[in-house]
TrEMBL record:
Domain Cysteine-rich as annotated: residue spans: 3-84, 127-221
Taxonomic lineage of the native organism: Bacteria, Pseudomonadati, Bacteroidota, Saprospiria, Saprospirales
UniProt cross-references to Pfam families, sorted A to Z: CCG
Top-level taxonomic group: Bacteria
Coiled coil: none
InterPro entries the UniProt entry points to: Cys_rich_dom (IPR004017)
Native species: Neolewinella antarctica
Name of the protein in its database record: L-lactate dehydrogenase complex protein LldE
Signal sequence coordinates: none
Amino acid sequence: MTVALFIPCYIDQFYPKAGIATLELLEKYGCTVVFPREQTCCGQPLGNSGMEKEARPIYEHFVETFKSFDYVVCPSGSCVYQIRHHYEALEQTPDVVALRENTYELADFLVNVLGVTEVNASFPHRVGIHNSCHGLRGLRLGQGSERVGEAFSHYKYLLGMVDGIELVTLERSDECCGFGGTFAVNQPELSTKMGRDRIADHLAHDSEVITSGDMSCLMHMEGLIRREGKPLRVMHVAEILNSQKV
């Protein structure tokens, strides 16, 4: 199985360790991973800002770059949601249809394509999971509280197999952190209040680490954590799943 690794802009620029952990994790599970150097943004910032026409060349470049691979895996639910749902703006050629179907968020790929049943990692810390809106409600990586049905979470399933980890139960496990891309720019006061609320929930339950499959959410909360001196740190799920076993 050949997997193309798509790394979002903010991971590339600010959190490369999350990208490296994703690469190493996929290789541990037997994937041949290719990193196309021609890759750029998926077009999400423009799409979220209502500039669909301006985003089309970015969409088309993404399709051309990744169309020849069996799977495309990305450590970001929001970027994968953009590709799966917003690339409907393109002509639905066989290449576009196949790319939309075969692009996966990392945890989704590990659970539903690779069928992972064992995680060889150790992380002896109290960890709170942040469910991003795109991942939880857009990609159905877990069961939102507004839905009726059996509860599930790809993140809980995978992290629950890590030695020594203690997953923290939060009061509002599926509440938005307030980032929302350009929302944080256009509504900074509201965005900040939502971020502080999420951090307070983790602190109230003695989390040491906040983890998520979306580094953009973690980046937003980390900014507040650092500025306000809170005793928390953030890590992408891939970094925990790839941690060395003691």
